Amino acid sequence: MKVVTKIAALLVCLAAVIDTGHAQNWLQLTPASGNAPAPRSNAAAIYDSLNHRLVIFGGKSASGNLNDVWAFDLRTNTWSELTPTSGPAPALRFTANGVYNPAVQQMIIWSGQGSGFFNDVWAFDLNAESWSQFTPPDPKPNTRYGVASIFDPKAKEMVAFAGFTDAGRFDDTWRFNIANATWKEISLTTHPERRCLHSASYDALEHRMIIYGGQTSGPRGDIWAFDLTNNTWADLTPQTSPAGRWFSTNIYDAVNNRAIIFGGGFGGGSVTNEVWGFDLAQNSWQQISASGTPPSAREGAVAIYTRAEGRMVVFGGLGNAYFNDIWVLNLSSTTGVDSNSDNEFPITFRLLGNYPNPFNPATMIVFEMPAPANISLRVYNLQGQQVKNLFEGKIDGGRHQMVWDGTNDLGAKVISGIYFYVLKAGAISVSRKMTLVE
Predict the structure, then answer these.
(1) Rounded to two decimals, what is the model's pTM?
(2) For the chain, which terminal residue's Cβ has fewer other Cβ atoms within 10 angstroms, N or C?
(3) What is the DSSP letter of 40?
(4) Which has more confidence, 71 or 401?
(5) Is there a single domain that holds both residue 312 and residue 368?
(6) Considering its fold, how many domains does the chain have in total?
(7) In a 10 Å sphere around its CB, with 0-12 CB exposed, 13-18 middle and 19+ buried, how is residue 329 labelled?
(8) Domain encompassing residue 355
(9) How many other CB atoms sit within 10 Å of the CB of residue 184?
(10) From CA 111, how far away is CA 102, in angstroms rounded?
């Protein structure tokens, strides 16, 4: 593991390694200086990974709807306002969806409610700090609010599901091609029930959109996965689930391969500050009881995941008031590594996948061992030739991550394309495909 550790140290942007010395804990971040955005709920939020910052747009405040843009620098704990002083901008709104397009440093937002319901799509240039509007032709989704969307990094598309207008709730699935500014509805016979106020995250290991909860006739507690390669829905809901809720956050915990939800509303003004993790390999829920003082109960907060630290960052929401506080939840303690419980330790040999995929310049391969064993992990090209021997030797039981930095055994960078990685332990051999992009 010493070789892997050295590689991971060089790749800070992917160094979400297991930290067995720290428990899951809450910490409130106090801005170091300057102004902060108005307290609000139901903003749009993205993680600007290039600049390591949370970026928010709009939302609802005690004084009305908003369309301002703010960034919280996670290196310096400082807010800065990015709202353009001139030029076009989206109308005031809340529940707009926001996704991050890292290739061109843009925050893409669409939908929401303000003076009415919206279905417009906008791009905020994070370098120029300016807005531009897309003008997609028909067909396109109805105007709506309370939608859930993610960014598909492979297709470079925004993928959206459901929502609500005064005409009712929807159960439709749409893909927005950013390069061509076109919408495409995915017609499906199997899909989640119509809803609004749900949340979504991107499962990078399995290339899926995960949606949770929301509202139909009351709060929902189901969880579904949309396969972004095959355009198919699958119901993941286990028999035992937390109470249904709407306006909870939803992030993908890459180290532990789970969806994490925080907060949400149960109806009748009842809100929560619970944290739950859904293991995407086992399809099971586990409540996370983190140490430290947690945020107060709320709905309509936003959250991002920073893979370098393995943390969830939470902003705002509505509880006994509108909030503009910033919290981090350290998620680095992993199921099966820190626990002494036999029920929580991995019981099978599993290759969970790699994150991110597609990738450039590096990716992290995640696997689990039920007990110590001699293993090998190698990368091959499409011709079956070995490209890189990542690890060979004895390894402890538990969950492990190994980083491939896109080099071969001689240390030279390889060309973009499709590669396979093969994990062997004794007579068992499993493989997966990954794509290195330019």
Answers:
(1) 0.75
(2) C
(3) B
(4) 71
(5) no
(6) 2
(7) buried
(8) 350-436
(9) 15
(10) 21
In this prediction, residue 181 carries a pLDDT of 98
pLDDT at 231 over 50: yes
Order of strands across the sheet that contains 350-355: 350-355, 363-369, 398-404
Four-residue CA torsion sign, 403, 408, 413, 416: negative
User: What residues contact 142, with CB distance under 8 A and at least 6 apart?
Assistant: 119, 163, 165, 167, 170
Residue 2, helix vs strand vs coil: helix
* CATH classification of the domain holding 387: 2.60.40.1930
Partners of residue 60 on adjacent β-strands: 41, 65
Give the pLDDT confidence of 249-263 residue by residue, as tens digits.
999 998 889 999 999
Residue type, position 44, single letter = A
CA torsion sign, 302 to 308 to 311 to 315?
negative
Tens digit of each residue's pLDDT (9 = 90 or more) over 306-348 = 887 889 999 999 999 999 999 999 986 433 333 323 333 345 6
Residue at 344 is within a domain: no
Position 259 in a domain = yes
How far does CA 382 lie from the centroid of its chain?
Answer: 30
Q: For residue 67, what are its two tokens?
A: 């369309």
- Can you tell me whether residue 191 is helix, strand or coil? coil
Question: Which residue do the tokens 């809100």 mark?
Answer: 271
For residues 27 and 142, give the distance between their C-alpha atoms in angstroms, rounded to a whole number.
Answer: 40
Cα–Cα distance between 414 and 436 in angstroms, integer? 9
CA distances from 356 to 189, 251, 290, 366, 395 (A): 30, 15, 27, 11, 24
Name residue, tokens 């538990």: 398
List C-alpha distances in Å: 187 to 40, 152, 191, 263, 275: 36, 18, 10, 32, 34
**Helix%, strand%, coil% for the chain, nearest 5:** 5, 55, 45
